Amino acid sequence: MVPSGGKKVKRGILQRLDAGEVVIGDGGFVFALEKRGYVKAGPWTPEAAVEHPEAGASIVGVNCHFDPTISLKTVKLMKEGLEAARLKAHLMAQPLAYHTPDCGKQGFIDLPEFPFGLEPRVATRWDIQKYAREAYNLGVRYIGGCCGFEPYHIRAIAEELAPQRGFLPDASEKHGSWGSGLNMHTKPWVRARARKEYWESLSLASGRPYCPSMSRPDAWGVTKGTAELMQQKEATTDQQLKELFQKQKFKSS
């Protein structure tokens, strides 16, 4: 937004990126709406934004299906491809807010926890601040998130990049940077956590002693063009579901 005659005028993404602005995007609305009861899980359509620069794309990047680490590795490869081809394009990244080091080629949809058991994999605000900084250092200027991202994650991006953007988000009025709000806590060991170094180096525990750190992705061997992957207009029948349940038992055994 830029002032013009006392009024704010909306600018397009390309205008903002061309002007050198760091744009923060939030594509995690589908999962967030489902959690709040506004949409029903089923016929979701996660966006994918991997474009071919030779086709004339102005913004190149990745969206959804993989975590920040994997997504940024992919963007790095794309950047190298652009440079090798002597092409220029803005870079964007909107990864999941879930850690998915164990997922297969199709991403988190192959994980047995998808989509209703993913909460133990949620990235912390500090994970997302690290992602935002790494993305910026890589040259990405459209930095956002997809499924699993919550408002505090987007705030983390905005706070991490406040020096580059020139301002803090409104949500920071009630949030101390790097736990600084803990300096008034009644317990001294909690007050000692009011610093960046503590949260950056913390090794997190899941609190689930009988759960594995990784899952085994479902690998049914289906690929593009397989009948099972064809999108139906009508609802799945009970018989079709029974066949899938039987196949799941067979594949999991």
UniProtKB/TrEMBL annotation:
Q: Which GO-annotated molecular functions does the record name? A: betaine-homocysteine S-methyltransferase activity; zinc ion binding
Key words, A-Z = Metal-binding, Methyltransferase, Transferase, Zinc
Q: Which residues bind Zn(2+)?
A: C64, C146, C147
Q: Where is the signal peptide?
A: none
* Cofactor(s) this protein requires: Zn(2+)
The pathway entry for this protein reads as: Amino-acid biosynthesis; L-methionine biosynthesis via de novo pathway; L-methionine from L-homocysteine (BhmT route): step 1/1
- PANTHER family attached here? BETAINE--HOMOCYSTEINE S-METHYLTRANSFERASE 1, HCY-BINDING DOMAIN-CONTAINING PROTEIN
| Protein name per the record | Betaine--homocysteine S-methyltransferase
Classification of source organism: Eukaryota, Metazoa, Chordata, Craniata, Vertebrata
Q: Name the gene that codes for it.
A: BHMT
